[in-house]
Write a structure and sequence with these properties.
Blueprint: E1 11-15, H1 16-23, E2 32-35, E3 38-46, E4 59-61, H2 67-73, E5 78-79, H3 94-98, H4 101-109, H5 145-173, H6 178-186, H7 191-228, H8 240-266, H9 270-274, H10 280-284, H11 286-319, E6 329-333, H12 347-355, E7 361-367, E8 377-383, E9 390-396, H13 401-405, E10 409-412, E11 424-427, H14 428-433, E12 446-449, E13 452-460, E14 475-478, E15 486-491, H15 496-510, E16 519-520, H16 521-528, H17 530-564, H18 566-574, H19 579-613, H20 624-651, H21 654-658
Parallel strand pairs: 1-3, 9-14, 11-13
Antiparallel strand pairs: 1-4, 2-3, 5-8, 6-15, 6-16, 7-15, 8-9, 8-12, 10-13, 11-14, 12-13
Helix pairs in contact: 5-8, 5-11, 5-17, 7-8, 11-17, 11-19, 11-20, 12-15, 17-20, 19-20
C-alpha cells in the first residue's frame, strides 16, 4: 500500500465503503475510476471514517493532479472549500509561526507596507475546526462552544428546577411525617440516622427517575437522531463517560434535592412532633421556599425570553428580502467542466437551451453558484489607473442569470451570453467600497482582476450572497464557461412535478455517466439557518419542560396551601370575605415572586439575547414587547396552574372548612 504523499498525478485513495460500492470488493487497488472528466488509478484503500468526522471523505485524489491550475491562481483567489494544512515542529507553537507571517507576506506578496488590501493569514488549530463558525468545515456543520455551553446551562437549569420542586414539596409535606419522626426519636433514632433514611429515600426516587429517563431517552433517540441528523446511541457496554455522568447525576441530584429536606425533617423536636405541634411554617423554612419558587420563576422567564428572541429572529431571517427571487427555482449540478471552443459548441449550454422546450420551465441559467450560496469565491481587484487593492466576491454567470433571479439593475446593462468575459457587472456595494455614491459613475471604468482588464457594463441592486449572519460584500459577475458548476431552472409553480421528471430525463441524456440530483433554492437558503432553527425547536422544548416542571411544583404548593388554610378560609368567609378576596390570598404571594423573578430574569435575558444576536449582521431589535410577552406568559401559566385549586378552595362551604380541623 502506497503512502499518502503521492507524487504522481491521477492517483486516488478510496474508502472501503466506496470501493465495495463501485467495484464490488474492498481490495480495489489498481482499479480506475472517472471523476470530473479525469481518470484516476486507485493506489490505496482507507478505513471508513466515523460519522462524526469533520473530514467526511470517501475519495482523495493526488494534489499534483490539479497543482498547475492552483499555482496559476495562487492565493490571490480563495475558494471556501480550499484548505491548507501543516504540522508544527515538535516544541513549536502557533505564536512562533504567527510572528513570522509578516516576513512571509513580504516574501511572497511584496512589501508589507503596500499591503493595501489588508491581506492576512489566519492559523486555525485543527482541534477547533468543529467549533469555529467563522470558517465552517467540510461537513458544513459546525457548532460553537457557546451553543454547547448554552445547552449545558439549560440542562442544569432543568435539573435545578426539578430539585427545587422536590425540596419545596418535600418540606411542605414534612409536617405529615412529624409524628413518625417523633416516634423514631423516642425509640432512640439519632438525627444522623434519620437524615440517612430520608437521603436514602431521595436517592431511591432519583435512581428510579434515572432508569425511567434512560427508557425515555432510548425511545426518544429515534426522533432526536432524525431531527439533528446524528447517530447518537446509549452504549452502556463501552461508553465510560455515560456511566460517569449517570453516577454523578445520581449523587449530585440526590444530595441537591435531599440534603435540606432531610435536615429539616430530622430536626423536629420529638415532643412537639408527638403532640402534633409542628406548624407548616416551621416545617417548610418559609423564606427558603420563597427563594426557591422565585428561582423557578427566574429560570422559566429567562428561558421564555430566550425562546421568544430566538423564534422572532428565525422568523425575521425567513421573511427578509434577499434581493433576488428564490421561489420555484431548482439548482442542478453540472458534472463536467468545459472550456471555450472555436465553434462555440457546449454540452451544458445545449442542455440549458433544450430545457426551455419543457412546458413548465420558465427560465434557465448557467453559473458557478446561485445568488446566495455556502460556497464563496473571493479575490482582490484594482481600478485601472490606481494602486488601491479591494476585496470582492466573484460569481461566474451567463447572460440569463439576472432575468431568472429577478436581480434589478441600477445602471447600465447585463452580460452577453459569451464563453469568456467581455465586461463586468458589479453590485451596489461594490461602488460604495471604491468610494462612488452614484452607480452610474462606474459604468465604463475598467477593472483589473484575474489578469484581465475589462469595463463595467452594469450595476445591480445589492443582494445577499451568503447568510444574513454576514454583511453585504462587493461582488463582481462575469461570463466564464470554465467556472459554470450549476444549472438553475425556474419552474412554473403550477406544474412542478411533471417538469422535474422531464428535467431529469433531459439531464440524464446529456450526462448518462453521472448521477442526477437537484435541490430547491429555498431549501438551500433554509440550510443556512438550520442550526438556528434546530436550536429554536430545542429551546422551545426545554422551556416547555421547565414550565411543566414549574407548574407541577406550583400546583403541589397550592394544594398544600389550600389544605393548611382550610380553617382560615372558612373564618374569612364567615367574616364576609368574597371569593375574589380568597383568590387574592392565594395569588399575591405568587405575584410577588413572579415579579421578583422577572426583575432578575429581564436583564440577564437581555444580555444573553444581545450576545446571541451579535453573530448576525441583520437582526431584530429587542424591544419592550419581548419582556412584556415573557412576563404575561408567566402570569398566565401561573394563574392557570393555581387557579383551579384556588377557586375550589374559595368556593367551599365555610361550615365544612371550620369542621375540617
Amino acid at each position: 500500500m502506497q503512502p499518502l504523499g503521492w507524487i504522481e498525478p491521477n492517483e486516488a485513495i478510496l474508502s472501503s465503503r466506496w470501493a465495495t460500492k463501485y467495484f464490488g470488493k474492498e481490495d480495489a487497488i489498481g482499479e480506475v475510476l472517472k471523476y470530473e472528466g479525469q481518470e484516476y488509478r486507485v493506489t490505496a484503500i482507507m478505513e471508513d471514517l466515523p460519522s462524526n468526522t469533520d473530514l467526511p471523505f470517501d475519495l482523495l485524489v493526488s494534489y499534483i493532479t490539479i497543482k498547475k491550475e492552483k499555482d496559476e491562481s495562487g492565493w490571490n483567489g480563495i475558494w471556501s472549500d480550499d484548505q491548507c494544512y501543516f504540522t508544527l515542529r515538535s516544541g513549536s507553537s502557533i505564536s512562533d509561526v504567527e510572528v513570522r507571517i509578516p516576513a512571509f507576506i513580504s516574501k511572497y506578496f511584496g512589501d508589507t507596507s503596500r499591503n493595501q488590501d489588508n491581506k492576512t493569514f489566519i492559523m486555525q488549530p485543527f482541534s477547533e475546526v468543529h467549533f469555529d463558525e467563522r470558517f465552517g468545515n467540510y461537513n458544513y456543520n459546525t457548532i460553537s462552544n457557546s451553543q454547547l455551553n448554552a445547552l449545558t446551562i439549560i440542562g442544569i437549569f432543568l435539573l435545578l428546577t426539578a430539585c427545587i420542586n422536590f425540596i419545596n414539596l418535600t418540606t411542605a409535606e414534612a409536617v405529615k411525617r412529624s409524628k413518625e419522626v417523633g416516634i423514631r426519636k423516642s425509640l432512640g433514632s439519632t438525627r444522623s440516622q434519620l437524615m440517612l433514611q430520608f437521603l436514602g429515600e431521595t436517592t431511591l426516587i432519583t435512581l428510579v427517575s434515572i432508569l425511567l429517563s434512560l427508557v425515555v431517552a432510548e425511545i426518544g433517540l429515534a426522533f432526536i437522531n432524525t431531527f439533528l441528523d446524528l447517530p447518537l446511541a446509549l452504549n452502556f457496554g463501552s461508553d465510560v463517560a455515560l456511566w460517569v455522568f449517570l453516577v454523578s447525576t445520581l449523587v449530585v441530584v440526590s444530595l441537591l434535592s435531599g440534603i435540606y429536606p432531610s435536615i429539616v425533617v430530622s430536626g423536629f423536636n420529638p415532643i412537639s412532633a408527638l403532640k402534633n405541634q409542628i406548624s407548616a411554617n416551621h416545617s417548610t423554612g418559609f423564606n427558603l421556599r420563597r427563594g426557591l419558587v422565585g428561582m423557578q420563576f427566574f429560570i422559566s422567564q429567562l428561558l421564555i425570553i430566550g425562546t421568544i428572541v430566538l423564534i422572532t429572529q428565525m422568523n425575521f431571517l425567513k421573511t427578509k428580502e434577499l434581493g433576488f427571487k428564490k421561489e420555484a427555482i431548482i439548482t442542478v449540478p453540472i458534472p463536467e467542466e468545459e472550456s471555450p471552443t472555436e465553434d462555440g459548441s457546449s454540452k451544458m449550454r445545449t442542455l440549458r437551451n433544450d430545457l426551455m422546450n419543457i412546458a413548465g420551465v420558465e427560465a434557465t441559467s448557467l453559473s458557478s453558484t446561485p445568488p446566495s450560496s455556502g460556497s464563496v469565491s473571493s479575490t482582490d481587484f484594482q481600478i485601472e489607473g490606481g494602486d488601491q487593492h479591494y476585496a470582492t466576491q466573484v460569481k461566474q454567470v451567463d447572460g440569463n442569470y439576472f432575468d431568472l433571479y429577478g436581480i434589478e439593475f441600477l445602471a447600465g446593462a447585463g452580460l452577453t451570453d459569451a464563453d469568456t468575459a467581455q465586461s463586468f457587472v458589479v453590485n451596489e456595494r461594490f461602488t460604495q467600497v471604491i468610494g462612488l455614491s452614484d452607480p452610474q459613475e462606474i459604468i465604463g471604468k475598467r477593472i483589473k482582476m484575474w489578469g484581465k482588464s475589462l469595463p463595467v457594463s452594469g450595476v445591480v441592486k445589492n443582494f445577499h450572497t451568503v447568510s444574513l449572519q454576514d454583511p453585504l460584500e462587493a461582488t463582481i459577475m462575469l461570463n466564464r464557461i470554465r467556472g459554470y458548476r450549476t444549472l438553475s431552472i425556474k419552474l412554473n409553480p403550477q406544474s412542478v412535478q411533471p417538469s422535474l421528471k422531464e428535467v431529469q430525463r433531459k439531464w440524464e441524456q446529456a450526462y448518462p455517466e453521472f448521477i442526477y440530483s437537484y435541490e430547491f433554492l429555498e431549501d438551500e437558503i433554509r440550510e443556512f439557518y438550520e442550526a438556528e432553527a434546530k436550536m429554536s425547536v430545542m429551546l422551545t422544548v426545554f422551556t416547555s419542560m421547565a414550565i411543566f416542571i414549574g407548574c407541577l411544583g406550583l400546583f403541589g404548593l397550592t394544594v398544600f396551601m389550600a389544605n393548611q388554610k382550610t380553617k382560615e378560609i372558612g373564618v374569612r368567609k364567615v367574616l364576609g370575605a368574597s371569593v375574589e378576596n380568597i383568590l387574592l390570598l392565594f395569588s399575591r404571594e405568587f405575584i410577588r415572586l413572579i415579579l421578583i423573578g422577572f426583575v432578575l430574569a429581564a436583564p440577564v435575558g437581555w444580555y444573553f439575547s444581545t450576545k446571541y444576536l451579535e453573530q448576525f449582521a441583520y437582526k431584530i431589535s429587542i424591544g419592550p414587547s419581548v419582556f412584556i410577552v415573557g412576563l404575561g406568559s408567566t402570569f398566565l401559566i401561573a394563574f392557570i396552574t393555581v387557579g383551579y385549586r384556588s377557586i375550589k378552595a374559595a368556593m367551599i362551604n365555610p361550615a365544612t372548612s371550620l369542621r375540617s380541623e
